[in-house]
Amino acid sequence: MTNCTSIQDSMSETIDLTAVQIVFCVLYCLVWVAAIVGNTLVLYVVSFNQVSLSVRSVFIGCLAVSDMLMSLTSLPWTAITIFTREWIFPKLICKLIGVFQGGSIFVSSFTLTVIALDRCLLILKPNKELIGYHRAMAIVVAIWATGYALALPVGIFSRTVSFEGLCGVFCEEIWPDAMESGRSDGRRLYGLSVLLSQFGIPALISSICYWLISRVMSSQLERRRGHTLLKESEEKLVNRKARANRMMIAMVLGFIFAWMPLNAINLYRDWGSVINKPWFSTVFALCHVSAMTSAALNPVIYSWFNPQFRKAIQSLCSGDRKTIKNKYHNDNQVRTPQTQITEVKIKPELVVNDCHQPGDQIL
């Protein structure tokens, strides 16, 4: 294009400053490395160091795959586009990248919700295997199909465009009802549906599930305190409840604080005016980094708070693969009613209670 001006010269923003770009480059790199390393460790442990596959392993593996895909598709591509403020990749990528980004984000959110529901059912119905391995695999397939179906509109309506007087091309969503100002009622409705399905509903369901789990575990602790328990047994119950509460709080707050800023800025973009706002790209980059930290936090929250998983990773780092297999073999057996009874018999101090009450399962 001749007689054109770069977008940086035409509409300068704070993100164009070298110092700001260096700061965000460091942040993006740290999050990217942490997400890739963390989710790779999770995938290795659940895939290659188990004797049998459990329902929880299926969901955690699904979460790790979606977070890995989100790190590969959303982190580098979006960061480069934010820095350059134009589209430097092939035109086909403009259509595909939005689908992969949105799909992996939906899958991650849906999987977090399913994990919360699974743990809630495990606590409320300890003697019923409501979600078996094959049903878990069917749920995972449904999650991926639904997630990518919801992300399809981004790919359908995204295309590269040029603007008169500006150098380069830009990847934009052009909806059929778009006005000259770029506003689109269809885009606004889609943005609201994304806000609800990717953030609002998962956050609400997860909060309710973990609230129910916390209530059941509290009542379980009070019930067992009414019996004559060994001091060591009571300490184990208290420690387990404290660990579970910390994990549940971290799960909900981690999800909310990671994704709320990005959803808020996207809502402002759809319903407000971002034209000639020199701060918008910088704030968007900050919100995007915040959202991407979820891909790095999930392996920590969903793995490190699990003692068996933590020991497996520690054994992996020390090279003791046999220990990893034995730990997972013992952990996976806990889900079936038959092995639950065996587990209670091995620990006679827990038999003094009605051990088949809700909440007696280990989180």
Automatic annotation (TrEMBL):
GO molecular function annotation: neuropeptide binding; neuropeptide Y receptor activity
Entries under CDD domains matching the protein = 7tmA_NPYR-like (cd15203)
Record's InterPro entries?
GPCR_Rhodpsn, GPCR_Rhodpsn_7TM, NPY_rcpt
Membrane as a keyword of this entry, yes or no, is yes
List each copy of the G-protein coupled receptors family 1 profile domain by range. 38-302
Which chain positions lie within coiled-coil regions? none
Keyword Membrane in record: yes
Where is it localised?
Membrane
Q: Which UniProt keywords apply?
A: G-protein coupled receptor, Membrane, Receptor, Transducer, Transmembrane, Transmembrane helix
Span-the-membrane segments of this chain are 20-46, 58-83, 103-124, 136-156, 189-213, 247-267, 279-305
Signal sequence region: none
Topological relation to the membrane, as annotated: Multi-pass membrane protein
Give a Pfam family name.
7tm_1
Q: Could you name the Gene Ontology cellular component terms for this entry? A: neuron projection; plasma membrane
Instruction: Give the UniProt family note.
Output: Belongs to the G-protein coupled receptor 1 family.
Output this protein's name: Neuropeptide Y receptor
